[in-house]
Amino acid sequence: MTAPSPFVDLAELIPDLQLDLRYYGSDNFIGAPVDGYETHRAWLTEPAAQALARAQRQLRRFDLSLKLFDAYRPQRAVDHFIRWCDTPCDPALKALYYPSLDKRDLFGEGYLNRRSTHSRGSTVDLTIASTDAGTELDMGTRFDFFGPESWLDCDSISPQARANRLLLQKVMTAEGFIPFHHEWWHFTLRDEPFPDTCFDIPIA
Ligand SMILES: C[C@@H](N)C(=O)N[C@H](C)C(=O)O
Ligand SMILES: [Zn+2]
């Protein structure tokens, strides 16, 4: 299904892009589907989608693929995260995703944003996986692990995981994306077309 303007449906533009859209289902840090993700599809603005297509083209040459966790994020999803911060803590999810933090501090510490770059439509959360089985490269932490182990300059992860992170940075920055210091998986297009707009169109 074609995405509404100004978005491009990534499965249509990049058919071999692997999609594991964590906020559509419950396999995420809040343990539930997130508001605004009504179908397992991912949207980006045209220039961000084209840049992602180029990055995928680079990796294909090595039998590797990008695996996408999130792209455009409606503002109502961010509002869901904000409400979740004021609900009782689930110890099992805390142990997996933010073991050393109180969930109410995730915004102040920079791991969540009340006005997320994702809502501007040119930001992605992603990793690298094999093209055959979709096995993810070891990046040292799980996606959405909120702690210093996910920072770009963390040196307590294995040399292989550091090399894998560097490969992801190299492929993404070569195509115009800027990495985010606190989260190895998060990249924003440098010349994004809507730097001041937070969209709230549900992904349906
Ligand atoms: C929640 C995480 N995947 C993320 O995208 N964090 C950044 C800081 C954001 O919320 O914009
Ligand atoms: Zn992100």
TrEMBL record:
GO terms for molecular function: D-Ala-D-Ala dipeptidase activity; metallopeptidase activity; zinc ion binding. It comes from Marinobacterium nitratireducens. InterPro entries: A_A_dipeptidase, Zn_M74/Hedgehog-like. Its cofactor is Zn(2+). It holds the Pfam family Peptidase_M15. SUPFAM superfamilies: Hedgehog/DD-peptidase (SSF55166). Belongs to the peptidase M15D family. Its EC number is 3.4.13.22. Transmembrane segments: none annotated. One of its GO terms (biological process) is cell wall organization. It comes from the Bacteria. Zn(2+) binds at residues 118, 125, 186. Keywords: Cell wall biogenesis/degradation, Dipeptidase, Hydrolase, Metal-binding, Metalloprotease, Protease, Zinc. The record marks 73 as: Transition state stabilizer. This is D-alanyl-D-alanine dipeptidase. It is an enzyme of class 3 (hydrolase). The keyword Hydrolase applies. Binds 1 zinc ion per subunit. Catalyzes hydrolysis of the D-alanyl-D-alanine dipeptide. The active site is at 183 (proton donor/acceptor). It catalyses: D-alanyl-D-alanine + H2O = 2 D-alanine.
